Amino acid sequence: MRKPSRISRPRRDIASEITALILSKLEAGVLPWARPWDRTGGGGGGRPLRHCGTAYTGINTLFLWAMADANGYNSRYWMTYRQAQELGGQVRKGEASSLSVYYSQISKTDTNRITGEEQNRAIRFLKAYNVFNADQIDGLPAHYYPTPAPPEPREESAHRGAIDAFFDAIPVEVRHGGNAAFFSPVGDYIQMPPRGAFHSDDLYASTRAHESIHWSGGTGRLERKFGKRFGDNAYAFEELVASIGQCLVCADLGLPGELHDNHASYIEHWLRILKGDASAIIHAASKAEQAFNYLKAFRPPEEPCDAENHRATEIEEPA
Description:
- There is one protein chain.
- By secondary structure, the chain is of the alpha+beta class.
- The chain has one domain.
- It is 36% helix and 15% strand.
- The chain is built from eight helices and eight strands.
- The strands form three sheets. Strands 1-4-3 form a three-stranded antiparallel sheet.
- A hairpin with a 4-residue loop joins strand 7 and strand 8 (189-192).
- Helix 5 packs across helix 8 (280-296).
- It is globular and about 55 Å long.
- 33% of the residues are buried.
């Protein structure tokens, strides 16, 4: 007797799910990675965090930021159902999970038909697991929930010193003057208006973060393609990388992710790129993460958090 054949389920298109959310935000004129305000409720404007306190990276940062904003979550912490239970918590009935993604890979052996020589190659593919925000979970330790009171005022001199130390460590020529901010790939320098021309020190730092991300892609560094003219795909993609990377720097330095003046003019081009390639936003977030890490490497290293159960293959592609 023949066994009934198994019904194969269509493979989940994770990249398309992520892109659909990002597209919906962009079509509404909202950049889901830009956060030009101080978050209320004590949640802070930093990156989303795993249950152990380590930060998510790559597309997970953008996606979980967008999910938190869409659902009104204030906690920065995300975890699986099982992790919540291990911490003494319980996901409330009816709560919907969000995606956290990572790359996995398998090895495949190909045989040359002429020589018979075997060659191994790695095939990378996107996988996902479900996570919940701490605001969806009852019974967790208190530190997973943001306090309703606003955060205590920060010590401005120390905050400003940390920002200056970050940028001062980057070995880039910065010129001041004029009325435009840009990175010159030909001259290999950053041009900034005079510091006093900015409405605040935070705006100056945010703009410099944007141009520093561009600088990271220059010759002899990460060597990204800059494009030849406004509106071509390479130009628009580089601006997407710089926009995301700028907000990663701002989140790291405790700065509001102020929008770059030209961001609105790029949205149409970004929509075209993302609609044409469902994986484009994942690649852009990966390149932005690489750029951020490149800049951060000039800063003295900090002690890493013990990232138990951290998935080392999370979205961080090779250059």
